[in-house]
């Protein structure tokens, strides 16, 4: 695939706030994304939202160049997000509650700011530039340390009452492990990367560095690893099956760290999805195209859109 | 509540095709629905679609009056429906496959015909005239011998790839009973009216006429009935919780035969839904307003709309 481009327009700063890393890049006037800069996510127990704002403003100073003025900032954040108001409603991991990112960052930088949910922004990027181009009804599912979906309905990002796409907290098996949310057997407890490691170790497996190593061991014939991988892919297929029975997208795009496994993930998940959809239409299942940079691309798109609609 | 009205316009015939009954009524020029006529659903092993068309044409002759010409027919059918093409893709219960209801009925009656999925049509009626008036993102859930949902997204009926809203085939508990679809523990096997009767009888309960009698016995102190009812309402709450985690409507409307139970259904379902949505926004849950006639109202609305958009 050719490197994606967004077309000519103002240069903007794209910042993707993750639980451990803040990723930033400048989209230039030609619509190309520059090299991604990574920083540890700034944290503050007293004012976690403001710590992010201060860190983003410092990145703006660092990445600003005299020959290319940055015209807007796109910021993607995790948790529950009110995108229209630019407010981070809450993040269990990073600690803010009802923090007005848009207004605080605009006051500090005097730039237009767009704020979006990280997974929905990645979905917007896959829809505009990646694997979901031209598809009206699609779900972009990000599987990594957590699991969430961005829903595209009739060509638009859909958030419902604000919590749409919380696929990770769908109960797949009520006799499963207890989830941080209080329920048992949520998809995240069965198919996210940490769950794969935990299942493997509960089966008596070796100490491993992560889910990728469990897959490598499975491919090398370690039967405990085979079982842990297959248990996770079955659960993920059931989760996508439930998504299909309710939302019935034409296309499901799988992204996030676990999707790096490629066909070793997509093959068994596709089979489980197809089993679940007996009698229903089965969505196509493909791998995301923008990889780790989907969130950063999403932030860039939103910043450009914010300038266009002013 | 005042009797619903659709406003002035052409008179139309509304026909709601169910698994056992065909319900028909004329919507008059003032927008009032006349008395509902019921007939056994016409069946034919050789040509099940045509048997419906012949039956609807006979009803048209019967209900046509010289002083009020019927200008269109709205027909709602179960199963998988291609509404844009007017085709019944398939009905497991009634037996057709890819039958062109719109064209066949138009050829026979020389009237404009609108064809819609029965549950989505009931959803359209609740959205236009009933409990979901003025709500952009809503789910209308019909619980009776089966369970299905009509999704309203941004004020429009949403079908996705054609199978959206198949809530009855969401797996709630993989260790549950085998479903007709081949999976285990689908919501329909746990919470539809026949499931409530089956659970009660498996617990050693008396022979009963239906789910309403199980509820009556539960309210009279029969502990087996209490258990059967509570098991069904928990499962239904989990199903609506999964719907909320994925689709996040502002409002869920409960209709169908089981909703006749009123607060005896809504109370425990609301509690289970709220438990499921820990950390997420919880949709409001209310009872449908149009009762048994929602599907017939939906057919009338679609027939009127078909005439307006010609």
UniProtKB/TrEMBL annotation, chains A, B:
Transcription recorded as keyword: no
SUPFAM superfamilies per record: Actin-like ATPase domain (SSF53067)
GO molecular function per UniProt: kinase activity
Domain of life: Bacteria
Keywords annotated in UniProt: Kinase, Transferase
Statement: the UniProt record of this protein carries the keyword Kinase: yes
Similarity comment text for this entry: Belongs to the ROK (NagC/XylR) family.
Protein name (database record): Glucokinase
């Amino acid at each position: 695939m050719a490197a994606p481009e967004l077309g000519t327009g103002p240069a903007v700063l794209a910042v993707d706030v993750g639980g451990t890393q803040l990723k930033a890049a400048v989209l230039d006037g030609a619509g190309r994304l520059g090299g991604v800069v990574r920083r540890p996510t700034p944290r503050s127990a007293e004012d976690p939202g403001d710590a992010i704002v201060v860190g983003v403003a410092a990145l703006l100073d660092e990445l600003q160049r005299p020959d290319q003025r940055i015209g807007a900032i796109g910021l993607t954040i995790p948790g529950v997000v009110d995108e229209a108001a630019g407010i981070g409603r809450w993040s269990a991991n990073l600690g803010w509650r009802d923090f007005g990112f848009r207004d605080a960052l605009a006051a500090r930088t005097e730039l237009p700011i767009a704020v979006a949910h990280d997974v929905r922004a990645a979905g917007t990027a896959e829809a505009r530039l990646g694997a979901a181009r031209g598809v009206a009804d699609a779900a972009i599912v990000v599987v990594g340390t957590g699991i969430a979906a961005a829903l595209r309905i009739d060509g638009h990002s859909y958030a419902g009452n604000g919590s749409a796409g919380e696929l990770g907290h769908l109960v797949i098996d009520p006799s499963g492990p207890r989830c941080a949310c209080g329920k048992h057997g949520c998809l995240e407890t069965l198919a996210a990367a940490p769950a794969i490691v935990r299942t493997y170790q509960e089966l008596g497996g070796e100490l491993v560095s992560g889910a990728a190593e469990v897959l490598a061991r499975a491919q090398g014939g370690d039967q405990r690893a085979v079982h842990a991988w297959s248990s996770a892919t079955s659960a993920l297929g059931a989760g996508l099956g439930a998504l299909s029975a309710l939302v019935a997208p034409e296309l499901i795009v799988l992204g996030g760290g676990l999707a790096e496994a490629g066909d070793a993930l997509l093959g068994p998940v596709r089979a489980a999805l197809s089993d679940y959809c007996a009698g229903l239409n089965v969505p196509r299942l493909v791998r995301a195209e923008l990889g780790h940079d989907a969130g950063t691309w999403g932030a860039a798109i939103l910043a450009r859109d914010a300038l266009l609609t002013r």
